[in-house]
Amino acid sequence: GVLVYLGVVEGDKVKKGQIIARLDDRDIVAQLDEAKSSLQLNKVQLTEVENNFNREKELFDRGLSSQQSLDRAESVYKSLLANISIAEARIRAAEVALENMIIRAPFDGTVLTKNAEVGEIVAPFGASTTSRAAVVTIADMNSLMVETDVSESNIEKIKQDRSESTRLNSSH
Prior knowledge:
Elements: E1 3-6, E2 13-14, E3 19-23, H1 26-61, H2 67-99, E4 102-104, E5 109-114, E6 121-122, E7 131-132, E8 136-139
Parallel strand pairs: 6-7
Antiparallel strand pairs: 1-3, 2-5, 3-4, 5-8
Helix pairs in contact: 1-2
């Protein structure tokens, strides 16, 4: 989707679940509105169709209506119930799709780089010539490990720091 909001910059600290960015969701909002309207329309019709079906059952039980009339009323009633289920499923699907337009921090960390700008297209499964694969790069600075080369002439200058914030792997 098209990136419409980017709420972080490089160096920002983020918390797990924090909203980092949003994608354009107007089409999904329209689908959600349509599904809600469809559900409302079907529910308005439900009382009338259900009452008609119950009347046909009562008339049939008294021998005043045909099996065909009862079957037709039952079919209309069951079709409407199915349409209500379909509308409810469409609402749930649109709500999930709407949530997927919100990009949240997957863990506590620090924004290292911004990979996309507002107005660019981002895609979840990799970049192409017209889209970006990532909005930002985040790292948990508490779990970083650094590997470096030290010349033999400087090795005696290396000291181990016992604090929690810095750990030196003595094998390097």
